[in-house]
Fold:
Amino acid sequence: MTQFFQFLVTGLARGSVFAIVGLGLVIVFKATHLLNFAHGALMTIGAYLCYEFHNGWKWNTWLGLILVLVGAFAALDRSRPKFVVPGAAMLAAGLYVMLGIHLDYKWKLPYVISILLAMIVTGGLGLIIDIVLLRRMRGRPVFSIIMVTFGIAIIADQYVPSRWGSEAVNINDPIGIKSTRILGVPVTLIDVVTFLVAMGVTVAFLQFFKRSRMGTAMRATAYDQEAAIAQGISAKMVFGVSWFISAALAALAGILLVSGGGRTLDSTVGFFALAAFPAIILGGIDSTTGAIVGGMVLGIAEQLCVGYENQSVFGFVPSDYVGQNFHVVLPYIVMVVILLVRPYGFFGTKEVRRV
Amino acid sequence: MSGAIVTLAVLAVAAAGMAFWTRRDAQRHLITSYGRDISMFRSGWVKIGLIIAVLGFVSAPVGFSWIGFKGAHLPSNLIPGLPMGDFPLAILCIAGIYAIAAISLNLLIGYTGQVSLGQAAFMGVGAYVAGYFGSRRNPDNPTLAYFHLGGWYPPPWLWLLIALLIGALISAAIGPLALRLRGQYLAVVSIGILFLADHVFRNFQSWTNGPVGRNQLPGASVTIWPGKMLDFSTRASGDTDFFGFLYRRNQGYFWLIWGCVIVVMIIAKNLVRTRQGRAMMAVRDRDISAEVIGVELAPTKIWVFAVSGAMASLAGALYGSYIQAVTPDSFNLNLSIQFVAIIIVGGVGTIFGSVIGAVAVSSLIELFNHYKWLFNWLPFLKTGLGEKGMNIENLVRVVYGLFIILFLMFFPFGIAGVWQHIKRYLQTWPFSS
Structure:
């Protein structure tokens, strides 16, 4: 029973991370009706940014990043053609500075501030993706836009190992391997912290979504885009804010996933986002509640599967029948079964199809 | 000198001539009937182009890699430094395999609008099935299962056919999912199928040899008449003879693979210009409208999934036979995305575009890897092993990601769309813009 409780706590922690990844995906889906396959890449980048802020950072990244962003803005703004060439030059110079010069200026920040900075910078990255790439793609087939996000993911996945190295690193968070007791059962502290932080962020977002002016505008745009625009809501603003929040949540999820003793950070963190797709589909692709519930359910199911697949349960060992590492495919099997029964998930709205 | 340059020059002249004569032809014969519009060869000049393509198919291996006479072993690479020998042929073999897979994916995405990212899984199924039915007993790994009937082993055409059928069956079993799900839901589920296939490949030890993978894979040889074998698969260094002519392994495989490409192209082209193909396109454009005008969704979708799965597993079987090693890692999401990239670059919804895209994308990757020294001047490339920084593989992947994004943003119809544009420009010249 102790063991079961420990698995449950780990599952809740894992599920809450699933929930905020799913929440990020759902926010973008509600605003722009597209699944963001670059979410995993944003998670990886966010986690690495936090690692760099916390363990000493290099100025050339930031100078280069600013040059690239300003250059990209200038070069791609069609309304001001005279800035195209200088903008492109600035972009190239920024890439050069970012990738070519390795001058270190080590400056370490406290962990919480690192997390916040990483979230803000990753959010800005999401905003840039929306403005520079996806704003131009609006109105194209969904397939094209999805593939653009795949393209972003491919490029980001190459950038990460070339910037931060391909070997796993430790993020050196202050919590580490400390453990605590809940109801007399020893559990790792990071699981409790992860659960509390993720739930706090989720509740904060839901309140923002429900009560604030921007949140109301986001809900209105999700409900009926044209009507919202007719009411004076800036859809561009809503899309930008959605992307910013989504990317910031991705960064937080990536950081929470690699914090704690014995966990390391490498470029495979992004695979977690692929596993979060079943979670949001389980709950309904356009439902924030669905993302949270689906994430929790899948997190607990996955951790129970990890815990029990190599033990004898009721006289038989599950992995003899379903193979090693069954927890990797469990979310997908659950997803396929659920989709066959309820094609729009548990909390999703049924799509009305018209001729 | 090098037959390679001659071959390329002949192909270039042929393309220019086709473009020119298309204009002449269009001025003389306007397409005025539906029958003509959906016919396979809309103008006579396409037939000539086809003949030239077939000649190129037969002669390209001869041009790129030397064929000698029996007893006279010639070096495969006459001029060191030029891309001769087996290297371009190896690229073209892989490109042909990718072309078959890309055509199969184009039938799904480009013609029926079913976004699937699980094509690599069906390719894996084909490779493993071919490995089981085509291989012999491996003394190093006696527990690995292989198929035999009292010492009789299936010939290549039979294991290719079995791989094709099993791929079609499994893919058709996935088809009903597409009836319930649409668009992005289907894309996510197909990723799930990819992970499931990976799980099966890793855990079905007796057939697949687990994470290590099968290395005992079939060689492809065809008995022309008793006692005379046409062997496509001589081991890397060896030469085989065909009525006294020597040819190398890559040459043999080039003919086998591109022969399959031509057959698949003809089948796909004919599929999309018949009733089935028009039903597929109606489903793509608006499925409810298609149902209203009498297209039955279920058979159409399941049929196209079956055909697409069959083609993908054919590609997988050829891949396994050519590479001679199949591991679960070969058939991952990256491979699926690569096929999608191929059809985006080549042109979504065209058969010919898939082949062009396959050649373009795979030769891009291979040429970057082969000519590493061309990029030494780039400041951010790392030189040592332990250093941080980008290596050439990273750079290739970045260029490839940029290719996807830029093509989607600026050339949404791919290379085939650009070609159409040029053709139309020439046809309507002096009035074209």
